[in-house]
Amino acid sequence: MGLIALIGVDLLQLLVPRLIKRAVDGLTAGTATSALLGKLAAAVVGLALLIAGCRFVWRTLILGFSRLVERDIREWLFGHLLTLDRIFFGRHPVGATMALATNDLAAVQLAAGMGVVAAVDAVVMTIAAFGFMLYIHPRLALVTLLPMPLLAFATRVLSARVHQRFHKVQEQFSRLTEFARSTFTFIPLYKAFTQEEAQAVRFRRLGEDYVRYNLRLATVHGVLFPASGLAGNLSLLIVVVYGGGLTIAGAISTGDFVAFISYLLMLTWPMMALGWVFNLFQRGIISLERINEVLLARTSLPEITTSAPAHLAPVITLCDLSFTYPGQREVALHGVTVEFGQGITGIVGRTGAGKSTICQLIARLYPVADQMLLFGGHDVNTLDVAAIRGQIAYVPQEATIFSDTIAMNIALGNPAAGQAEIERAARAAAIHQEIIAMPDGYQTRVGEKGVNLSGGQRQRLALARALLLDRPVLLIDDGLAAVDLETEQRIVLALKEHLAGRTCLIVSHRLAPLQYADRILVFDGGRLVAAGSHGELLAQNSFYAAIYAFQRMEEEGEAGHAAA
User: Fold this and answer.
1) CA angle, 236 as apex, 235 and 238 as ends, to 5°?
2) What is the structure's pLDDT at 203?
């Protein structure tokens, strides 16, 4: 309907010169009357009202359509990003992805809105106006086309440069967005290292580069637009010289001459708009290509459509599991074979021993080869990823806290949870007393990333969030590192009671809290080097005993220092 209204505007505009021709010819021949001129004036006013109404319709419908396109692509992009894995986000900075949903999508919307309008308007107006010009005098109409090759040549030469330079503009905007995002995300760190001024300088340099790329693009447009105007003005010059001679010779009437110039002026807009339309479509195509690269990306995890078994036992089996992170050469895990059943299993080892890798693989954050990881006796590559994750509560190393209430942060995975359930999870995570001591208790709002909470409080909130899910498997990937030793021991003891009949893996650098675990695994260099209870490992494994003795000395030294 919008396109019909737009074409209607163009056709109605073409009738106005015909009315002017009748008036001019009547005045020239001396046959015009006040009544005739009044009727022609009324017709012009009526056409103007119809044009205004149609213009309102097409602006509302076509520009509204472009906003619907923008909305749908944004929702499509957002929904697709939620399906992608860590490998994708490791290669694509968040700021660059945000730029797609802002700057690039705006270019697509403009092309789908005003770009379509200008293109259709230019084509229809060109064909119709040139048709009327042919009707008035075919040879004059053809002569006016002589400057057109100049415009076609300029457009062809400049098209490649527009594409290349606009692509650089969009890439630089992505860098600018990512830099701003990372700066604001880690602003406490920059303040701690007094790097505010240095960051501002870096940001200014990125902004200067962005302006420079835009100016280089503007130079291309600065040639394209004047070239369009020059072609239109040269055509007008031809009409005045050649068409004026035809009028003097009587080949066309004065009214035809005036109408011909009116039609040529109508053609001037399409010729000048050609550069603008070309610019809009070039920008839209480049931006759509950038967006489409993300939409074509696929998760490296298997996309299983068949339903998972009704019941999956909380038993996780690693069968000669080896793993290397994408893009890395060093092997993270070497042939690990172990089964995690009910109870608490502690995982210890040096930094880089492969502890966190195990948790991330079990949580299905990275792909594994067939038959190397089993869940409930089933190869994970034959199960829906969402079905596996629905059985797991995961507490990562970095506790993510949102700028909302304490209650909302705990109930993130279960928004329908009642207050009693939230408090029970908080008690199990040993943070209930600290929450009720806050000004508004569980309704206390915390800042972005829990900026007004201690590291230990953030980790315990993340633990309470996982416990509230009440799932068969709990993974704690060094999620209690910021908690003091005594509190960590109390949490582990509480977990033994809270997680009866379930499977729990606790990765920790500290051995003392894990002495209450049912079993402890010792990793070194990506290999499982020992397994047993705390007492058995102390007695049988020198590596474990040496770590434990060293940590005991550190704890005693810290206690002595505090007492002094």
Assistant:
1) 65
2) 92
To the question of domain 68-296 being in CATH 1.20.1560.10, the answer is yes
**Considering the entire predicted model, what is its pTM?**
0.69
User: The tokens of 302 are what?
Assistant: 């298997």
Nearest-Å Rg of the Cα atoms of the chain is: 36
Q: What is the spatial distance between Cα 209 and Cα 135, in angstroms, rounded to a whole number? A: 53
DSSP string, 70-100: HHHHHHHHHHHHTT--HHHHHHS-HHHHHHI
Are 260 and 129 in contact, with CB atoms under 8 Å apart? Answer: no
Closest-CA residue to 105 (of 295, 287, 296, 282): 287
Q: Where in the chain is the domain with CATH 3.40.50.300?
A: 316-563
The set of residues, in sequence order, having a beta carbon less than 8 Å from that of 24 and lying 6+ positions away, is 253, 254, 255, 258, 259
Q: With 60 as the cut, is the pLDDT of residue 564 above it?
A: no
For residue 14, the cross-strand partners are none
- Are the C-beta atoms of 85 and 301 separated by less than 8 Å? yes
Nearest to 544 by CA among 353, 334, 337: 353
Interacting residues of 85 by C-beta distance below 8 A, sequence separation 6+: 299, 300, 301, 365, 366, 367
Report pLDDT for 156.
64
- DSSP tally for the chain: helices H, then strands E: 21, 10
Chain position carrying tokens 């213009």: 55
Mean pLDDT of 260-282: 74
Coil/strand/helix, residue 321: strand
> Which residue, among 91, 89, 82, 85, has the nearest Cα to 367 in the 3D structure?
85
Q: Which residue has the tokens 């209450």?
A: 516
Q: 430 in helix, strand or coil?
A: coil
Task: Give the SS3 label for residue 310.
Answer: coil
165 vs 173: CA distance, rounded Å: 13
What are the tokens at 74? 């944004």
pLDDT, tens digit, 9 for 90 and up, residues 322-340? 999 888 888 999 999 999 9
Query: Which of 412, 391, 473, 364 has the alpha carbon at shortest distance from 86?
Result: 364
pLDDT at 76 over 90: yes
Element (H, E) at 291: helix 254-296
Q: What is the average pLDDT value for the chain, to the nearest integer?
A: 84
CATH 3.40.50.720 fits 316-563, yes or no: no
At 388, give phi and psi (nearest 5°).
Answer: -70, -50
Query: CA angle at residue 125 from 121 to 129, to 5 degrees?
Result: 175
Residue 362 CA: distances (Å) to CA of 350, 367, 369, 390, 425: 20, 10, 13, 12, 23
